[in-house]
């Protein structure tokens, strides 16, 4: 007859083996913000849902892969970009996705490994410059007219001098009016995101009227996750995210993931 002591010991050992074979369960939760004006194909709203749209995209997929079977659970919230950065800096939000770098961000945040690259470019109406406009330095655009950009966006990696005057507009929705009414003749944007952003804003016809040129002397611009230095989980977030990006990159899976969302955008919008 088996004693109770041996029976209990056996059951405990059995449960220990069972749970050791299960995926690690999340022991803490983190909040990660994306821009609420959308940044396709990296983060944008799923408009196929009848309820309040949820964020989808390349960023969201990588977060699910990085944290899905880890000690951290995560949720994604969409905020105005300036507020997103502010709350990450303060530590009320743990991290922000799809950020380029400048000296201030290098100082204020813990930086992930880069997980994609974009092409700094400038755009103008084809009808304004039928012969095109190509410059040796981006500052030379001022010889042809004023240059617009989105308020609070970082354009440091476009190769502009710090004192360059950039006419700031509040959102991309104002761009057609700014160009057609000649309030600015040029607009700065990342090549890979502009067409998708215009498409989800029902402005794809306007995109066909634009000419786009890669910014001279500008290198492909890396984008990062910015992690709060005040987050109690900052080191775990960085370790899990960097490891997953490195693994996906070595397996050749990052580009197909991006292509999936580019194709999804072209079919949906």
TrEMBL record:
It comes from the Bacteria. InterPro entries: Solute-binding_3/MltF_N. The keyword Flavoprotein does not apply. Gene3D superfamilies: Periplasmic binding protein-like II. Keywords: Signal. Residues 1-26 form the signal peptide. SUPFAM superfamilies: Periplasmic binding protein-like II. Residues 29-265 form the Solute-binding protein family 3/N-terminal domain. The keyword Signal applies. SMART domains: PBPb. Belongs to the bacterial solute-binding protein 3 family. PANTHER family: L-CYSTINE-BINDING PROTEIN TCYJ, MEMBRANE-BOUND LYTIC MUREIN TRANSGLYCOSYLASE F. This is Extracellular solute-binding protein, family 3.
């Amino acid at each position: 007859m088996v004693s109770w002591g041996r029976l209990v010991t056996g059951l405990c050992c059995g449960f220990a083996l069972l749970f050791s074979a299960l995926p690690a369960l999340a022991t803490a939760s983190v909040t990660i913000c994306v821009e609420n004006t959308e940044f396709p194909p990296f983060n944008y709203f799923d408009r196929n849902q009848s309820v309040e749209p949820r964020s989808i995209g390349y960023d969201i997929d990588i977060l699910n892969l990085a944290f899905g079977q880890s000690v951290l659970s995560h949720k994604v919230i969409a905020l105005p970009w300036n507020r997103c950065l502010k709350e990450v800096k303060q530590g009320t939000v743990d991290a922000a996705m799809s950020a380029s770098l400048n000296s201030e961000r290098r100082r204020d945040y813990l930086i992930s490994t880069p997980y994609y690259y974009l092409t700094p470019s400038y755009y103008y109406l084809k009808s304004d410059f039928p012969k095109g406009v190509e410059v040796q330095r981006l500052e030379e655009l001022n010889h042809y007219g004023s240059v617009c950009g989105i308020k609070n966006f970082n354009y440091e990696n476009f190769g502009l001098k710090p004192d360059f005057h950039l006419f700031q507009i509040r959102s991309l929705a104002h761009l057609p009016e700014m160009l057609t009414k000649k309030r600015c003749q040029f607009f700065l944007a990342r090549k890979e995101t502009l067409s998708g952003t215009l498409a989800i804003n029902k402005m794809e016809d306007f995109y066909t009227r634009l000419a786009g040129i890669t910014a001279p002397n500008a290198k492909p611009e890396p984008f990062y996750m910015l992690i709060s230095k005040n987050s109690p989980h900052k080191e775990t977030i960085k370790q899990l995210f960097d490891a997953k990006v490195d693994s996906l990159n070595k397996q050749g899976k990052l580009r197909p993931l991006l292509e999936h969302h580019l194709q999804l955008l072209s079919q949906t919008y």
